[in-house]
Write a sequence for this structure.
């Protein structure tokens, strides 16, 4: 496996672990659907840290992990709140017309 493939795999696993950790510390009931969704969302947002490698090709793995962690946490939180807001807006429109 080449170095960039290792870094991307590491970011993917890091994001999945962040998503699952957020699920374990939340008050929401633990479901398989929620666990998979949080893992995928955390993985996707932490993978954005790979873009930093384009700008800084010699970035150390530790710095990459830090950027991936920050993006995994902040990005998944932002996406989750966005989708919840959109869902509530959508329910409001459908509920008024009925």
């Amino acid at each position: 496996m080449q170095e960039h493939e290792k870094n991307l795999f590491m970011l993917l696993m890091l994001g999945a672990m962040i998503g699952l950790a957020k699920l374990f510390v939340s008050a929401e009931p633990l479901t398989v659907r929620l666990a998979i969704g949080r893992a995928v969302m955390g993985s996707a947002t932490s993978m954005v840290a790979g873009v930093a490698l384009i700008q800084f090709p010699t970035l150390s793995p530790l710095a990459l992990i830090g950027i991936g962690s920050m993006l995994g946490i902040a990005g998944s939180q932002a996406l989750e709140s966005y989708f919840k807001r959109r869902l509530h807006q959508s329910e409001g429109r459908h509920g008024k017309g009925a």
The mean pLDDT is 82. The two ends are 56 Å apart (CA to CA).
